[in-house]
């Protein structure tokens, strides 16, 4: 607590005020004299001294309770715990210790909760005694003899929920206990899950879902499946939390049926190699319904969802790596909607911006890796790519520019020449939508021949998914900066935040071109007949080359700047500082949307 007193106060008076207030209010007090920033005196509340003759202490009743808690902390039957190492898994409470047991924790070794087995960073757990009467016939003997273990142990009803400190941030968490009925969901656990979500709506703190669940407990489904406050409410609450607070899900096992919806509703989903999977039905159910025989990994393993469905944002090597990924990820996100994402100290980029111009080929058809460009723009070690194996023609990543978190949507000419296919369009739309929800500014790096054409992409809904990308770009109200790196052809410039889409700036590099289509396609479309009439092959080639160069002069970035289509052409070596200045200037820009309930596109 800071207290300011008049400039005439003496050091002795400041000290007396600090001691008096600290003792009276029970808080630390700093007293500042006049306008001085440094306190003239500080004081802490006195330690409580209990009377020496107070011989009261815990009774047998408390000892019994502690014994019951110790029993609950052991989880399900021991035989199931013994199998976890073979599966490469941690016991759920060891997992919580990995996530929250670091030096950032708030509890000391002498704290009662720490003694009961909570990791240092767990503030508290709710519902340890859920389903207690259903499985615990009597408390363990105070002499140390344990009650007889049964295979029907249901500690916490197989689900742990509570609040913790993670990387300096207060979060809500849930974690399935796979030793209890394979982490399945039943009435009491469902109630705990729902309470945790509802509290997150009130506190505005992020939610971590540490999932390892086989789905609903079929033999105990009465009272929680179709009820108003049953499993179905999970996904209602997920929908209400979506865009309100970050929801991050890590999968530690096969999450089937109802359990598979939590990861796809989350803002970000992490799968663990060789361990996790998610699917609408198990392989056994798939065989029964369709006759198809398939292994779990092929049905819904990490590769499937990272490369084919796009449902996995990140794939971790193991449990420790999963935590590392989420620790990096949460550093780009605010606690809740309406807050600015956290900034860090600026770092110079990994590679010098001086090399940007040489990196970008003069020919619009020659490839280069856009990550190399990003490494010359973003702060070093700050590029955090999502859905790397899905829709690779577009890179979606968080990075920092001058310490400020930025969401990057970049065409990658090294993949399918940077043409936008349906998967990439959908991936970009979802990323843009998420960045906009959490106040993360957007940077578009445009180098694309436009949306892909052909019968297969039409079947794959290129128009429908392209529409979603354009809609997300149109509706995002965060600051947006667009860079025309090289080619910006067709509707690609629309989806990539072009001049018509209310970006704060559109800047070009000298390699940039903006056109309805590229030179080759344009010349073929306009002059095909004329060229066909030229019999001499050499003359035809010379004419075609001349027409192509004339066309490129029309679409050159200098012409676009001359006609004020774009805002500025910048020397490539200054691109990073140009973007840093523009993001800083437009940090608090206010942009609105038409007064309506919502759009109909997403």
Characteristics of this structure?
single chain, 602 residues, alpha/beta, 2-enoyl-CoA Hydratase, Chain A, domain 1, eight-stranded mixed beta sheet, seven-stranded mixed beta sheet, 20 strands
Structural write-up:
The chain is α/β, with parallel strands linked by helices. The chain has 4 domains: 2-43, no CATH class; 60-330, Alpha-Beta Complex (2-enoyl-CoA Hydratase, Chain A, domain 1), CATH 3.90.226.10; 353-512 and 556-585, 2-enoyl-CoA Hydratase, Chain A, domain 1 (Alpha-Beta Complex); 517-555. Helices cover 36% and strands 17% of the residues. The protein is built from 23 helices and 20 strands. The strands form 4 sheets. Strands 13, 14, 15, 16, 17, 18, 19 and 20 form an 8-stranded mixed sheet that branches. β15 (404-411), α16 (422-437) and β16 (442-448) form a beta-alpha-beta unit. The two termini are 48 Å apart. Mean pLDDT is 90; it is low at 103-115.
């Amino acid at each position: 607590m800071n207290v300011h007193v008049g400039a005439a106060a003496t050091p002795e008076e400041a000290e007396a005020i600090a001691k008096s207030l600290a003792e009276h209010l029970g808080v630390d007090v700093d007293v500042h004299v006049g306008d001085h920033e440094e306190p003239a005196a500080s004081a802490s509340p006195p330690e409580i001294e209990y009377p020496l003759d107070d011989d009261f202490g815990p009774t047998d009743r408390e000892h019994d309770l502690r014994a019951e808690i110790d029993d609950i902390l052991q989880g399900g039957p021991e035989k199931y715990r013994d199998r976890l190492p073979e599966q490469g898994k941690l016991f759920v409470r060891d997992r919580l210790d990995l996530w929250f047991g670091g030096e950032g924790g708030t509890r000391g070794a002498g704290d009662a909760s720490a003694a009961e087995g909570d990791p240092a960073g767990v503030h508290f757990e709710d519902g340890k005694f859920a389903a207690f009467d259903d499985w615990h016939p009597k408390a363990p003997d105070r002499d140390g003899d344990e009650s007889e273990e049964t295979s029907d142990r249901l500690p916490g009803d197989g689900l742990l929920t509570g609040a913790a400190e993670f990387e300096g941030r207060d979060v809500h968490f849930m974690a399935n206990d796979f030793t209890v009925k394979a982490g399945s969901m039943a009435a009491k656990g469902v109630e705990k899950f729902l309470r945790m979500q509802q509290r997150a709506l009130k506190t505005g703190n992020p939610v971590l879902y540490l999932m390892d669940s086989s789905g609903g407990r079929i033999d105990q489904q009465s009272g929680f499946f179709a009820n108003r406050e049953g499993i179905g409410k999970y996904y209602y609450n997920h929908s209400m939390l979506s865009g309100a607070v970050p929801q991050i899900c890590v999968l530690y096992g096969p999450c089937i049926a109802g359990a598979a919806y939590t990861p796809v509703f989350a803002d970000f989903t992490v799968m663990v190699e060789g361990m996790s999977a998610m699917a609408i039905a198990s392989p056994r159910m798939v065989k029964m319904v369709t006759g198809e025989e398939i292994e779990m990994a092929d049905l819904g393993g990490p590769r499937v969802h990272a490369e084919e469905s796009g449902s996995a944002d990140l794939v971790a090597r193991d449990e420790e790596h999963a935590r590392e990924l989420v620790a990096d990820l949460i550093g780009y996100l605010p606690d809740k909607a309406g807050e600015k994402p956290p900034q860090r100290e600026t770092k110079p980029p990994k590679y010098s911006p001086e090399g940007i111009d040489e990196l970008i080929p003069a020919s619009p058809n020659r490839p280069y890796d856009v990550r190399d460009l990003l490494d010359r723009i973003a702060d070093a070690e700050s590029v955090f790519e999502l859905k790397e194996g899905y829709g690779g023609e577009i890179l979606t990543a968080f990075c920092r520019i001058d310490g400020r978190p930025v969401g990057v949507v970049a065409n990658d000419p090294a993949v399918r020449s940077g043409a936008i296919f349906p998967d990439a369009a959908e991936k970009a739309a979802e990323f843009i939508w998420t960045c906009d929800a959490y106040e993360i500014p957007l940077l578009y790096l445009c180098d694309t021949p436009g949306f892909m054409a052909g019968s297969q992409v039409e079947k794959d809904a290129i128009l429908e998914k392209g529409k979603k990308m354009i809609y997300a770009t149109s509706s995002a109200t965060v600051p947006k900066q667009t860079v025309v790196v090289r080619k910006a052809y067709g509707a690609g410039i629309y989806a990539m935040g072009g001049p018509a889409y209310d970006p704060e700036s559109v800047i070009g590099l000298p390699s940039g071109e903006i056109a309805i289509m590229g030179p080759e396609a344009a010349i073929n479309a306009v002059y095909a007949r004329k060229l066909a009439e030229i019999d001499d092959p050499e003359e035809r080639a010379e004419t075609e080359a001349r027409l192509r160069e004339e066309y490129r002069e029309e679409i050159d970035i200098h012409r676009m700047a001359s006609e004020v289509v774009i805002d500025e052409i910048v020397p490539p070596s200054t691109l990073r500082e140009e973007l840093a200045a523009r993001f800083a200037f437009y940090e608090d820009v206010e942009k609105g949307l038409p007064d309506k309930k919502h759009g109909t596109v997403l």
